[in-house]
Write a structure and sequence with these properties.
Length: 356
């Protein structure tokens, strides 16, 4: 664990998520510097920065991250290997399903539109076509027959990423769920341990996150399955920090989808619902500090794409009881709490209606 005597921490990322994580390290007595990944080389490291720790706050090519770690001589969190596996959808699916036996949807990966057809035949219709590199839900299509495959390929294919396209079996599940999982040092034992935040239910439209709520109402069996999956995949990746582990919930059955070894957009709900939010949890875990995942209030969030909204619209949103707002790029995150999840969801929906 680094000490505040060697206090400079480089945060690799941009925007609100990187700034929030920087604030978390600052509150712990460190000197965070936010560096951009846009240049694609180690020259993206700000001049004069000599960190002992570099924390990756967004997905990036592993070659670039290795170059930055070498240029700074700092410890990289997550590791280059962890970033490589989790950025690539094929890598994390094969790690989860084939190496660790975790339940996943049936899946295939295609290098061409012709191969996509053969993959879809094996997986079966309807199926979901996705970019081969994790993109936070963008580029996905539900395909009901072969005629829809060319358009789905065009939407998912990106030669600047890895060029492959994923196909997975479509299941009409109850809902999607994120388990924020934290790996840090347990002060009682001095050993690595795992903590689980209360599950976060999520809803997407056209691959875009539009709503989250916490806690999600998993059955006892589903909760056991979800935490088992979360513990096994975070343990397989093996680095300290927070993991946003995305799952599909169908009754008591739970299927692994993907994992991000860093704070994420859906986890921003914890700023309203937990004693310690996801950014502070990540900073604590990276540094090997004590963890507290206590839920203090049921809550919900709406994620609204609203550029150029005025003061009056924001005032109407913030006038909704127990509601706050954070702007993340072109997305306004409206977070509400209540006596129940249902009440919090109603408040967040009411606030969102003022911005659209």
């Amino acid at each position: 664990m680094i000490s505040a005597e060697n206090s400079q921490v480089l945060i690799l990322g941009s925007g609100t998520l990187a700034e929030e994580l920087a604030a978390s390290f600052r509150r712990l007595g460190f000197e965070p510097v936010v560096g951009s990944l846009e240049l694609g080389t180690a020259h993206g490291v700000p001049e004069g920065v000599n960190p002992t720790l570099t924390v990756v706050c967004e997905a990036a090519p592993s070659e670039q991250l290795a170059e930055i770690a070498a240029a700074t001589g700092s410890e990289l969190v997550p590791t280059v290997e962890a970033c490589r596996i989790t950025r690539n959808r094929e890598g994390i699916r094969r790690t989860a399903a084939e190496e660790h036996g975790l339940p996943t949807m049936a899946y295939e990966f295609a290098d061409s539109v012709d191969e996509l057809g053969a993959c879809a035949d094996r997986v079966g219709y309807p199926c979901v076509v996705k970019p081969g590199t994790s993109t936070g839900g963008e580029g996905q299509s539900v395909v009901t027959g072969p005629d829809e495959l060319p358009a789905a390929w065009e939407k998912a294919y990106d030669p600047e990423l890895d060029g492959r396209v994923a196909v997975e079996r479509y299941v009409d599940f109850d809902y999607e769920c994120t388990i924020l999982t934290v790996r840090s040092i347990d002060p009682a034992t001095g050993q690595l341990s795992t903590w689980f935040c209360e599950p976060i239910g999520t809803r997407h439209e056209d691959g875009r996150l539009v709503e989250a709520w916490q806690p999600a109402p998993l059955t006892e069996d589903a909760m056991d399955n979800a935490r088992s999956i979360a513990a096994r995949i975070s343990g397989a990746i093996g680095v300290q920090g927070i993991y946003a582990i995305d799952l599909f919930v169908d009754g008591d059955e739970v299927y692994f989808s993907q994992v991000s070894p860093r704070p994420t957009l859906d986890g921003m709900i914890t700023g309203a619902t937990q004693r310690i939010n996801e950014f502070d949890l990540h900073a604590r875990a990276v540094l090997g500090l004590p963890i507290d995942v206590t839920l203090t209030s049921p809550g919900a969030a709406r994620f609204v794409q609203a550029q150029g909204f005025g003061r009056d619209a924001l005032a109407r949103a913030l006038a909704v009881e127990e509601t706050g707002a954070v702007v993340v790029g072109d997305t306004v995150v409206l977070r509400s709490t209540g006596d129940s999840v249902e009440e919090a969801r109603q408040r967040a929906a009411e606030a969102a209606s003022t911005l659209v």
